[in-house]
Amino acid sequence: MKTSRHVSPVLPAATDRLAVQPLGLDAVTIRSGVWADWQRDNRAVTTPHSFHWLERDGTVDNLRRLDPSGSGRPERRGPWFTDSDLYKALEAVAWDLGREDSPELAELVGDISDIIRRAQAPDGYINSFVQAGMDVRWDNLVKSHELYCIGHLIQAGIAHRRSTGRSELFDIAVAAADVVVADFGDGRRSDTDGHEEIEMALVELYRETGNRTYLDLAQQLVDVRGYRTLDTTNFGDSPYYQDATPVREETTVVGHAVRAIYLLAGVVDIAIETGEEALLSAAITQWESMTATKTYLNGAVGSRFIGEAFGDPYELPPDLAYGETCATIGNIMVSWRLLLLTGESRFADAIERALYNLFAASTAVDRKGFFYNNPAQRRTALEAAPTNTRPDRADAPGTRPAWFECACCPPNIMRTIASLGAYVSTATGTAVQLHQFLPVSIETELNAGAVRLEVDTRYPLDGFIDVTVQETMGSEWALEFRVPEWAGRPELTINGISSGYSITEKGYARVSRVWVPGDVITFIVPMEPRLTVAHPAVDAVRGAVAIERGPVVYAFESVDQDPIVDLNHVELLRDPVMTEHIREDFLGQASALITVRGRARQDAQWRDTGWKRLEEAPPSDGTEVELTAIPYALWANRGPSVMRIFIPLEASPA
Amino acid sequence: MKTSRHVSPVLPAATDRLAVQPLGLDAVTIRSGVWADWQRDNRAVTTPHSFHWLERDGTVDNLRRLDPSGSGRPERRGPWFTDSDLYKALEAVAWDLGREDSPELAELVGDISDIIRRAQAPDGYINSFVQAGMDVRWDNLVKSHELYCIGHLIQAGIAHRRSTGRSELFDIAVAAADVVVADFGDGRRSDTDGHEEIEMALVELYRETGNRTYLDLAQQLVDVRGYRTLDTTNFGDSPYYQDATPVREETTVVGHAVRAIYLLAGVVDIAIETGEEALLSAAITQWESMTATKTYLNGAVGSRFIGEAFGDPYELPPDLAYGETCATIGNIMVSWRLLLLTGESRFADAIERALYNLFAASTAVDRKGFFYNNPAQRRTALEAAPTNTRPDRADAPGTRPAWFECACCPPNIMRTIASLGAYVSTATGTAVQLHQFLPVSIETELNAGAVRLEVDTRYPLDGFIDVTVQETMGSEWALEFRVPEWAGRPELTINGISSGYSITEKGYARVSRVWVPGDVITFIVPMEPRLTVAHPAVDAVRGAVAIERGPVVYAFESVDQDPIVDLNHVELLRDPVMTEHIREDFLGQASALITVRGRARQDAQWRDTGWKRLEEAPPSDGTEVELTAIPYALWANRGPSVMRIFIPLEASPA
User: Fold this and answer.
1) Residue A175 and residue A154: Cα distance in Å, rounded?
2) In B406-472, where does DSSP find H-type helix?
3) pLDDT averaged over chain A?
4) Is the pLDDT of residue A291 over 90?
5) pLDDT (tens digit, 9 = 90+) per residue, B155-177?
């Protein structure tokens, strides 16, 4: 039933259009390290935590009460789209079952599937908000999230089928999808959902079933967008919904960030399957604009609180950054699809930046707290999040809340972690690509037969990535390591002996041989800390630098600093020297901390004023101090704090 | 009936606590220049425009329909607090009648007063939202704005009485105030309005009537705040409502900016009348924190879109500035009260910065368009505002909309302009203070008798302020000119002969003499353009400068630039030389434009990336160009544009 490379969220049918073929959870196992620990905790800690909250907030009850045989259930609770929170959590559990079986989790999926099936209308339609009588089917699509929710149901059903071969959840999802097809397909309706998501779900359903109707509908739902036909009476404007410009004409990402990015993922999915150049080229143009002009160093996308939206190019002020977790997860989705299609390292670079920084920062090290939006700078230590209730507002408090009324992010994190192995490696007939450097086992079939590899690495603690060939056939094949954009030219050894390698035009270090079992290929990425500056049009961090080391963006958190340091009044000295300090257990993770000389500014001559004449601006005054930087991902795990990523650099003398 | 110095929005009863006594509209007449033109247009253009919209949006009808004899009126429309929009417009007309009589405007006030009186409940209560059956009296104070609206009614009634001596609107207001006293006074209720405003209205009503009950209630409404008792279920948190910290313990301004500032104005009013040191000192501490750490160069206060709120200290990114017009008007109110109390020039400086920049920018030069929030930078030219409809959203579009659903700002602008003469000058028994330099006539009584002055000036086009003594008594008195904080040491001549002067500890240039009619005192403020830098903790404009000239903040608007210039990719050359160009008619105003050498950057090496290693950051590339700066207040009057105030300064060589 299960075949190799078939347990993955994205399995294009048009494999001949792909530069590289995905390796799924059945082919790639994360064996150890931080991400394996997180996968373990995702199952053991986050999953029960999430289902506790999904019960506590009535999300499951919202469906239970629709069971025709049920009675006495409480009123429906929460936002319109709570169904999707449950579906995403279910998808997470489904991927986790693909990773490793569990009778308890299998039972959980069975039970919830049963609840969904009983809630479903006779024709397959399902939406707990509409079915509770709070709206009319398809009547208010801009707000209702009906297609969005069904999209997540489809993805959960596919995940469960791919992971376990079982069809009960999948069949429920197909029935729902078929209602959408019946009502919208072949242009029977010309409207669409205010929140994109179903597009990529329908393409994946086409891939899973071979039924082209789903692909056609996905295409239709993309094509109707961009003509200002979505009703903007209640909230949002046309750009908010990506409805101001047709996607083929759009040159950047606009509006609500998660919507824009989910649309982009669906667009790439369609382009993969249809081969339409115009669609693909628009998608790449938008991705490039997003990456070069609308992405924070920490991987945040979507700078504006208002509308959770993309701002203008270079509008990236850290002190008012929004940075929704779901948007960065969406960027991982888009970039992965573009990576499959093109094989270009820049897409894997974007995934790496997202994963090691904003995505990792979204979740508390105890894996029971989450940021919905992710600060890139915090000037004052806010109150800690309550631990036994959830806050009403999504705005990030001093620590990560346990849950949210709008609970989109935590289950999105869960499903990403549970399926993370699917984003690590790909293959062609004659090569295996390593896009992310994790300690994994890889089993795949190349043209000439089976290959089994083990990757051992403490990356990004250090830059050594050892690949041991454990099984190989007798013919030549290649190993291709992504050369990260920050890495210069890494070293490579084979069985301890320095080896040359070519760099492919896609940006990968390639060594090709007739390997024998026991061969060890070591890719050595330089991991010295570096100082990074932003594009000169990013006004908000001009004259400031950030520390990066490998893929890790660093932050200065108040808890690590000398008591005389106020991180709002601080600068690095010119030509700062950075010193690494390896800590084997920093908040449960082996981490490199970095110290650097700086100045705790007094700003004494500025006490009463916010501005001065240029010629009267005083030079920096204050005390030289050692400042400590930690991986940004780990901030706010020790109580409320002040934090910054970019830090002013002492000005050169005029 | 009218006595000198009694036509003013703020007339403290405890005159002996004031450092300087207000001179009202009966004492100060703006004779010519931009502000006189605006007053003329405020009456001739903005007033009919506003009443057109107040009718079109149902604001007047919301009250008409409550007339017991009326019938067939449409349903109530608009936000809860629409009554206040009408009251503020009415207050504006009332001040305008004080400035210059008009049978038509007198009739307008009479008609609207009649509508309000008929709408009023038998006991005097009035709120069109509650009386429409949409809420229960005082039941939902955090949202309902009932006290807020009655506060504005009180201020309108007082304005009308002070301006005209008539009492019909005043009596309506007193009846409403007495319902508040009956229900809330003497601690009968312990709650208060979610939006402060009534505090300063009640204090002014105490001043107008001598009835201390109103003052006591104002104090009570301030004292109940700060204990997290306001219901935050619907929206906002306790800091949003200034309910997290009692005002005497608060050290900065927090939460919704207009609310925080209106509270502050009420607090100063109470402190003036009660003499309570703790209250006054808390107010001054908050004002200082606001001025030094939470005010934009253009006079904007309240940086955050979310909650229209104050941010953290130094959180002042221009590209995400909110800057509500009403908040800056509130700052003028607070600063004026503190100026009366202390006589210190810093408060008049703050008023000047607000008036000449954000306040002036809020209104189109045709006086029929308004910004609700005021951009401090615009990276892309947004669509123009519709001209025949009003936008649903308050966010500033490419040009100034004609009106808003939440129409608080336009009538607030109107009442400020109509009463502007009251913010120009004050007196003590032996001196006249000039706080703002406008061409005005001043008539007042000093200890020894009547004084009449004429001020002639084109300020801020140039820095010459001529004061001609037209009438004086035979004894010595002083003229005190504010020395603006940016002015260094101005020159002073008497009858053309250079004269020494003392600078008072309050920051005023003082000359005291036995003047004779015909004496001309000229105060000469240097008006060279200057480059201004922000406090080093304002991350968002580090390495950038702004041009100021006198009180005027400059902006670069795309429409004035060479076609090769993209204002998002530009910098000034080191040691930039600025050149003034006087334009006698620039958008209807005599203005100084400024040109400066800069560079249109190509940023060619940055095309694909948002960040680089510090050592790999390329030097600026591009073409040297002449850049043109205009007064910020005049931007967006020539169609949608790109605009910036702060502009990067070429970095010194490392």
Assistant:
1) 10
2) 409-418
3) 95
4) yes
5) 999 999 999 999 999 999 999 99
pLDDT digits over B587-635, tens only? Answer: 999 999 999 999 999 988 898 889 999 999 998 889 999 999 999 999 9
Helix (H) or strand (E) holding B205: helix B198-209
Determine contact: B531 vs chain A, CB below 8 A.
yes
Nearest to A646 by CA among A576, A551, A570, A561: A570
pLDDT at position A652 is 77
Lookup: tokens for B54: 């107040």
Strands A477-482 and A431-434: parallel
Is the Cβ pair A541, B539 closer than 8 Å?
A: yes
- 3-state DSSP assignment of residue B62: helix
Cβ–Cβ of A313/B568 closer than 8 Å?
A: yes
B607 touches chain A (CB under 8 A): yes
Rounded to a whole number, what is the distance in Å from the CA of B608 to chain A's nearest CA? 6
> Which neighbouring-strand residues pair with A528?
none
Among all chains, which residue has been given the structure tokens 């299609």? A341
Predicted confidence band of residue A4 (pLDDT cuts 50, 70, 90): very low
* Cross-chain residue pair A536–B648, CB shorter than 8 Å: yes
Q: Would an 8 Å CB–CB cutoff place B541 in contact with chain A?
A: yes
Distance, in Å, from the CA atom of A218 to the CA atom of A200, rounded to the nearest integer, reads 7
Q: Do A7 and A422 contact (CB within 8 A), yes or no?
A: yes
Please tell me whether residue B374 adopts helix, strand or coil conformation: coil
Nearest-CA distance B380 → chain A (Å): 7
Alpha carbon separation from A341 to A28, A248, A426, A479 (Å, rounded): 20, 18, 11, 19
Q: Are strands B477-482 and B464-471 parallel, antiparallel or unpaired?
A: unpaired
- Let me know: does A294 contact A286? Beta carbons within 8 Å: no
A-chain residue closest to B295, CA distance:
A610
Helix/strand number for chain A, H first, E second: 17, 24
The answer to whether the Cβ–Cβ distance between A544 and B541 falls below 8 Å is no
Q: What is the Cα–Cα distance from A243 to A226, expressed in whole angstroms?
A: 4
pLDDT digits (tens, 9 = 90+) for A138-160: 999 999 999 999 999 999 999 99
**Do B542 and B536 touch, CB atoms closer than 8 A?**
yes
Residue type, A223: D
| Residue B485, amino acid | E
A157 contact partners, CB below 8 Å, separation of at least 6: A169, A170, A171, A172, A173, A174
Residue given tokens 């690095």 in the structure block = A572
**Which of A:367-426 have CB within 8 Å of B?**
377, 379-380, 392-393, 395
Length of chain A: 654
By the CB < 8 Å criterion, does B290 face chain A?
A: no
* Residue A375 distance to chain B (closest CA, Å): 13
Window 185-244 of A: residues touching B by CB (8 A cutoff) are: 232-233, 237
Distance, CA of B400 to CA of B505 (rounded, Å): 42
Q: What is the pTM of this model?
A: 0.94
Find how far residue A458's CA is from the centre of its chain.
Answer: 22
Per-residue pLDDT averaged across B78-90, rounded?
A: 97
CB contact under 8 A, B533 and A608: no
Q: B29: which strand partners? A: B441
Q: Is B303 left (phi over 0), alpha (psi -120 to 50) or beta?
A: alpha
Q: Which helix (H) or strand (E) holds B502?
A: strand B502-503
Q: Using pLDDT thresholds of 50, 70 and 90, give the confidence band for residue B72.
A: low
| Residue in B312, B544, B613 closest to A539 by CB | B544
Q: What is the pLDDT of residues A342-369, one digit of tens each?
A: 999 999 999 999 999 999 999 999 999 9
Looking at the predicted structure, is the pLDDT value of residue A654 above 60? no
Measure the CA–CA gap between A65 and B334, rounded to whole angstroms: 55
A28 SS3 class: strand
Q: Which of residues 116-155 of A touch B (CB under 8 A)?
A: none
